[in-house]
Amino acid sequence: MTTWTSEELDRIGHADELEMAPLRRDGTLRVPVPIWVVRDGDDLYVRSFRGTDGGWWRTARTTHGGHVRSGGVDKDVTFAEVADPETNDRVDAAYRSKYSRFGGAYVDPMVAARATTLRLLPR
Question: Which InterPro entries does this chain map to (predicted)?
Answer without folding.
Answer: UCP028498
